Amino acid sequence: MKLYDRICFSGLRMNGNFFKSFLRIGLMAVLLVFWASCKEVLKPGNPPNILLILTDDQAYGDLSMNGNPWVETPVIDNLAQEGAYASHFYVSPVCAPTRASLLTGRYHQKTGVSGVTRGREDMSLEEETMGDVFKTAGYTTGIFGKWHNGAHYPYHPLGRGFDEFAGFTSGHWSSYFNTTIEKNGKPFETKGYLPDVLTDEAIRFMRDAANNGQPFLCYVPFQTPHTPLQVPDKYFDKYKAKGLDDFNACIYGMCENIDDNVNRLLVALDEMKMTENTIVVYFSDNGPLNYRYNLGLKGRKGQVNEGGVRVPFIMKWPQQVKGGIVIDESLAHIDILPTLADLAGIDHEFKNRLDGRSFKSLLDGQGALPDRFLFNEFFGKERVLYDPYLMVGENLYDVREDPLQKKNLKEDAPLVYDSLKTVFDSWMADVKPEESGKKYIPLGYDAYPVTTLPAHEAHLFPPFEARKDRRHTGIAYHSLYGWAHDWIDYWTSTDAYAEWYIDVVNSGRYKIEMDYALLPENIGTVLHLSIGDKHLSVEVDEAFMHSPRENHDRVEREQEAPETDWGTLSPGEISLPEGRTRVKIQAQFIPGSKTIELKGLRIIKQ
């Protein structure tokens, strides 16, 4: 039987007797406290390296082993054959929540992460991360790719247990070719296709760790196949020749590029003679952005149906993981940290109670795991799985008999639905985060003297709305939704303004800079900047117009702002005391059609 047939149809099916099934609910209390531990220590022996690969918006059906008739991913397919494949692996519906759960072993609601932009992706500083755990255990730790759990230090990866970082902290990147990302806190100009560059950096990191005799945690969160739709010609042309439209030709081209880069990572391990003692993990952060081949699973990214949260998951470790096995039990992103710590022999006294559990016993043939509930929630969309019963909103399914969610069992089994609803409501009441109010951006750390207040994290007044007619609101974002890298535009009213909330951790003198653009007809516009009770005004006496950039998009983007260049204004310096305050910028005079386009402010400790 083909692997994808086993994935679709394998598994022990509960006998359908609801009352017997729910007699086991009492076991859940045991699961909540299973990760009691002693003083942290790395057990004797040669600790395994960790290569953790995460893809972005890659569907369950975006691998050729899962029956996709177009995409070609032979390396990843082979990785699943040589390792263990979890056929029912679940994540959150969107990027940042999944990453928070991966890094902490906890449901994202507990970590302070609720969304994907304007600070909703910032992971609480009270959380321990995978980087913290493995670094404390003697590992060198690095991340190469998309972070998306906080841009400002100490929310930044270098403040969360990672020794090295090359990539970007936002939810997406605006250009995948010859761009400028970040490397250890400084701008890093790249040449070529960005996933290839990230792979280069990861290989360098692993080689350096091997040369220094250190075990490593190498986290490689690729930003593909997330939009914008950019991929080298050789991949795009290949899938266009198969008769696909531009959108899916680019998506599958990006998937094959991932496959090629996974191959490069695995070859590097072979060359370093580290394959046998490296745990390789591969999975995706959520379902697909568009409706494409996905084995018929219902839903997509942003939704809590199977198509939005069920993703491919592979783990290979030749020393301990039996090759070719398919794990049929339902597992989740919250399980990865406890499992890796267990496999590595790390006893860690976790600061916060984990929601995940180790599935090591499934990898070494020691038996099944206890039954449990797996929860999901996103902007009011409710989901709880007690395998095989799945509650999604007002619907109930048996996902083993009905994996495509075609038959609603709510009327046939009202007690099952009511019980799952009660369990979900109880869980939600426990994990629902308190209303945090304003998000304060920390600044003034001696080691990180430059803090950027990006336009997309501003609060706009009149309040921002995703409106097609944003030109008539007085102030708006250049692109529709104001996602990462967008900028403030259509600023035509002197009553309109933008503001941020900051937390100055060290008092002192600070230099202010603005990244801006301005048409010649609007020269002479006057801006007023206030930080608390400090004020600066500047008359903009020089135009700056965006230069044309090479457009690598295969399909015109609908949401992301394009990458472009900016001029710099330096209004002056200002003395700031410690504490929380507000930054506000407003146009005092607009001589032409509008004031500046504003990319963001930089506040630089002097």
TrEMBL record:
Top-rank taxon, per record: Bacteria
PROSITE patterns, sorted: SULFATASE_1
Gene Ontology terms, MF aspect: arylsulfatase activity; metal ion binding
TM region positions: 21-37
Record keywords: Calcium, Hydrolase, Membrane, Metal-binding, Transmembrane, Transmembrane helix
Residue stretches of biased makeup (Basic and acidic residues): 548-560
Sulfatase N-terminal domain segment(s): 48-346
Region (Disordered): 548-574
One Pfam entry name: Sulfatase
Family: Belongs to the sulfatase family.
Protein name as it appears in the record: Sulfatase N-terminal domain-containing protein
Organism: Marinilabilia rubra
